Amino acid sequence: MKDRMEWIDRYARGAELIERAVQGLSEKELRYVPAPGAWSAKEIVIHMADSETVVVDRMKRVIAEERPPLRTMYQELWTRRLRYAELDHRPYLPLFKLLRETMAGVLRTLDEADFERVGVHDELGDITLQGLIVRYAEHAENHAAQIERNAAAFRRSRP
Fold first, then answer.
1. How many other C-beta atoms are found inside a 10 Å radius of the C-beta of residue 88?
2. Most buried pick, 1, 6, 17, 64, via CB within 10 A?
């Protein structure tokens, strides 16, 4: 159980990691794209909030339903078609934080057996609730590190 709670805590801290990664960045740093096809820090922030809406839905379906189908989120399409580069990222930070906090609260109330409940992802196949928690704890950690790499690349690109 301790390991499970540690993963829930890591999942919950994801919003803080993203918030800290963008704190103090200038507008130029937030918009900086380090390579063709890469995302800017502001696009990552918006992606995190949008993907979290999908994640919360997935987790709640796995908890409440029997082997629910879980659809793929085509993140590149979302980023392009929803025009993340043109949006203000600032309202997405509190949204991401609220979604993480409320879902972590739900997760902390569950019984051990609930974490073994399964959803059926259309690309990944069977995935447990515990698997989703791990996947999305790491998702925020990886994107926070990506924002930090973007900021470092921006600084290196300046004379």
1. 9
2. 17
